[in-house]
Amino acid sequence: MSQDKNYVEPVDEDDEEEEEDVSADDLRLMARFLAPFAAPYKTTIAILVVLILTEAALNFSFPLVTQYLIDEGLIKKEWRALLNSLMFMGIAAIAVSGVALLADFVYTRLFADITRDIRQRLFDHVQSMSMPFFHTTPTGTVLSRFSGDLVALEAALVAFVPGFVMPFMEVIYATILMFMFDIWLGLIASLVFPMILWWPRIFARKAFLFAYEKRQTEGRLMTAVQENVSAQPVIKAFGMVGRARLAFAGINGVWVGVARRTNFSSALVERTAQTGLYVIHIAVFALGAYWAFTDRITVGTIIAFEGVFLSMGYALTNVTQYVPTLAQAAGSIRHLDDLLAVKPTMVDAPDAGTLAPFEREIVFDNVAFSYPGSSFRTEQLAVTVPKGSFLGIVGPSGSGKSTFLNLLMRFYDPVEGRVTIDGTDIRTVTQASLRAQMAVVFQESFLFNTSIAENIRMAYPDATMEDIIAAAKQAEVHDFIAALPQGYDTTVGERGGQLSGGQRQRVAIARALVRNPAVLILDEATSALDAETESKLNETLRRIAETRTVVSVTHRLGSVVTADRIIVLDHGHIAETGTHDELLRAGGLYATMWSRQQSARKAVAAVEDDEDDE
Ligand SMILES: Nc1ncnc2c1ncn2[C@@H]1O[C@H](COP(=O)(O)OP(=O)(O)OP(=O)(O)O)[C@@H](O)[C@H]1O
What we know:
It is found in: Cell membrane. By secondary structure, the protein is an alpha/beta fold. It folds into 3 domains: 18-182 and 321-344, ABC transporter transmembrane region fold (Up-down Bundle); 183-296; 361-612, 3-Layer(aba) Sandwich (Rossmann fold). Helices cover 64% and strands 10% of the residues. The chain contains 20 helices and 10 strands. The chain has helices spanning 24-38, 42-75, 79-128, 131-136, 139-181, 183-189, 192-197, 201-230, 232-237, 241-293, 299-341, 401-408, 431-436, 452-457, 465-474, 478-483, 501-514, 531-547, 580-586, 589-613, and strands at 361-370, 377-386, 390-394, 416-421, 424-425, 438-441, 519-523, 549-553, 565-570, 573-578. The strands form 2 sheets. The protein has a 6-stranded mixed sheet with strand order 6-7-8-3-9-10, sandwiched between helices. A 4-stranded antiparallel sheet has the order 2-1-4-5, with no helix packed on it. It is elongated and about 120 Å long. Adenosine-5'-triphosphate is lined by residues 135, 371, 374, 376, 395, 397-403.
């Protein structure tokens, strides 16, 4: 098996490559990306198209009726023509409002549904990623896909009908009408296209660059706030309030300059488009008025033309204003598409079976492994863990202890060799069936922001309250929970923040125990406990190890003294192996680590004794 299997492309860092324009490639990508999400809503989309076309057709009729009303009704003083056209206008106005309202109702629902589906798909995809993905992709990058990118996409979707489709239709039918009214006036009026489409671009580029700079500065402001809030204990303890304020004021000061430039240049872009529109408008109106005066065209024609021209100008401006929104959405879609294209590296083999209940032994069969891009390498890892035994894994920091667990839980695959359970290579069974037989307590005891009972039950949804209490008792945390005003219903706060480190750790141990696992994996699981609780818990773990298998990674040698076997890792290799007594007798790395820890403990005990004597 090649090492590339473990390699995962990290998702792009953030939006360096923003664009102001939308290329044909962008449009193709957007269509390809959105098509599967739009597919389930074919009928809704068809209804929307009919509504939009009806609205456009009704709008198309207004200028024609206006022309008729003036020329036939007002100028010729024809009551019937006046009444008919007014009646038509009234009915058409009601109809167009009704249709527009219905279209609004349909498209807002449609795009909300599509956004929900994209978000869900994204979440499911992130869920399906293997551990290497989470080790290589910054959390912020994943979060920004759900926040910035999805928001930009939703903004473009919601504005698509009123900001693009409707104005675009208006431009088309207004152009047709203008040419129908008078071909020469139509031609002059068409000069508005370059005026609105190209003229403002002189400033648009600058405005876009400023807007990008503004977003970057706002990002820095957000990071500063986020860092400040989470670093409050350090800031307060080290008296850094003044410095933090000054640093924030610095970024805020940069923002104000950028914001002024950005907002003024955006205003300039709009103003230029408007100026272009005014200039052409005056030219068209002057010529039209002259022709109406000389009877070349009717008064109704110039008035209707005027209305059509203005609405076309504004519609064209709307379309151009939609372009930056679309460009941002194109960038966001590229990010989302990249994320969705990342394939989970640790996939189950197509013919993967279910791992049979653990009966005999776990074997690391000459395993070699290294993380992509890391110089750390572990080789010829040969370990046998018999069922019902207690294996301790110790060693200096960075020696590969957690890596051993990563391989055992199949968060990563070995580059060479294999990990087997009862002779079955764990790569040949489903990851779910492998992990179903394991329970793990991580050093960082992550708790969810729900009740203690729910946090424990999470590992085994069928657990009864009795099971939960029994697990909590084993984890030496029941008395503490029972003494809380709301007992097991107490909510633990975000990341379990309302509990102490040791309490969190014991709840996490209860969570692992309630699963009644065949293999219990402990990764520095007792590091946050005081000596007394730790020793009680170790007692429990020893009892547990009699009926099931325990693999415990730890720095604290005291907690593996009674292990059936201890592996001492050093730089990714097994330096020594044996029981506590054997390793002490060998006088190697373990013995050195042990005597160092013992001296440290004695020194602490001596200080405590002195304090007691005083
Ligand atoms: N996801 C990763 N990607 C790249 N390198 C990693 C990754 N995880 C760990 N390493 C590297 O692998 C080596 C072994 O790490 P490991 O976490 O297994 O050590 P450890 O013995 O558990 O350390 P500690 O006692 O400090 O927790 C370290 O040098 C570490 O930098």
